[in-house]
Amino acid sequence: MRGKNGEGIVIDLTGMNIAMASGKGGTGKTTVAVNFAWFLAYAGQQVQYLDCDVEEPNGHIFIKPSIRTSSASKVMVPVVDQEKCTSCGECGAKCQFHAIVNLPGDTLIFPGLCHSCGLCSAVCPAGAITEGTRDVGIIEQGRGVREIKFTHGILNVGETMAVPLIKKVKMERKDQFIHIVDAPPGTSCPVVATLNGSDAVIMVTEPTPFGLHDLKIVIDVARLLNIPTGVVINRDQGGYPPLSDYLETNHIPVLAVIPEDAEIARHYSRSEIILESLPNYIDTYLTLATNLEKFLGTAGNPHVRRA
């Protein structure tokens, strides 16, 4: 067993933005993400965990941060001066998101559809549209287990667009930290916004037909974004040939394999960090970190410095 503070482990991924993603919910993405963050801190790295699953963040359940700051996240929303408005219809005609409806004597704004682009105020010939703000959620920050710097966003109930808040969460990244960015499941706009700008994506999948189907879709997203991608196979039960064949055919590296283990599920249900409760899995996460470092080093990533 390794020392209490990770003596002898040499890992340097400083400054890297590592996104954790999955094609579907329930694969164990957040479990792998929080334990990988814990492992990197255990190995002596400065780690920042950013939970971008703003519609249902749950990383805090395991990181257990002491929240030190909480701030509202605002976006621009147009404000119409009805006295100046001539109901010419120019703003509504130009809005690609149908967030403006022009009626005789009235111009209606639908904030839930607005993308805060500012075009409406720019094209208004009467100068009747100004830029106001509205809250879409909050950003909380603090420190958790092993001094992991923690940041997450919480989207307001009823808010339809998560992307603006995700971008605000990502803006809180600190220099000289390894950034573990927990993405929402799936392949929708919030996932693309989370993955964009990452140095690497770790896809967590389960060896099932559903897991493979959705993994293929989200890997296509990562490839469109030109992000190096590796896979962690979670809840493995001795291999799943269709998954192995797909990964081999598409030259996608398997960074680690985590077996089906009732003990992992038991400690997960108690909101515990698996590596604290089951230290025999520390070597699994060392394999994950080492393989990721080698994979990115082979790709010539300038952030990676190997001892």
What would you note in describing this structure?
The protein has 307 residues and is an alpha/beta fold. The protein is 32% helix and 26% strand. The protein has a nine-stranded mixed beta sheet with strand order 3-6-7-2-8-1-9-10-11, with helices on both faces. Strands 4-5 form a two-stranded antiparallel sheet. The model is unreliable at 298-307 (pLDDT under 50).
Index terms:
307 residues; Alpha-Beta Plaits; 11 helices; alpha/beta; single chain; Rossmann fold; two-stranded antiparallel ribbon
Q: What structural class is derived from the secondary structure elements?
A: alpha/beta
CATH architectural category of the largest domain: 3-Layer(aba) Sandwich
Order of helices and strands: EHEHEHEEHEEHEHEHEHEHHH
**CATH topology title of the largest domain:** Rossmann fold
Q: Into which percent range does the helicity of residues fall?
A: 25-40%
Q: Sketch the major β-sheet.
A: 9 strands, mixed
Kindly report the average pLDDT value: 93
Quaternary state reads single chain
Helix segment tally: 11
Radius of gyration: 22 Å
Sequence of strands across the biggest β-sheet = 3-6-7-2-8-1-9-10-11
Distance between the termini: 22 Å
* Structural domain count: 2
Low-confidence stretches: 298-307
The count of DSSP E runs of length 2 or more, i.e. the number of strands, is: 11
Shape: elongated
Portion of residues in beta strands equals 25-35%
User: What top-tier CATH class of the largest domain fits best?
Assistant: Alpha Beta
Q: Which homologous superfamily in CATH is the superfamily of the largest domain?
A: P-loop containing nucleotide triphosphate hydrolases
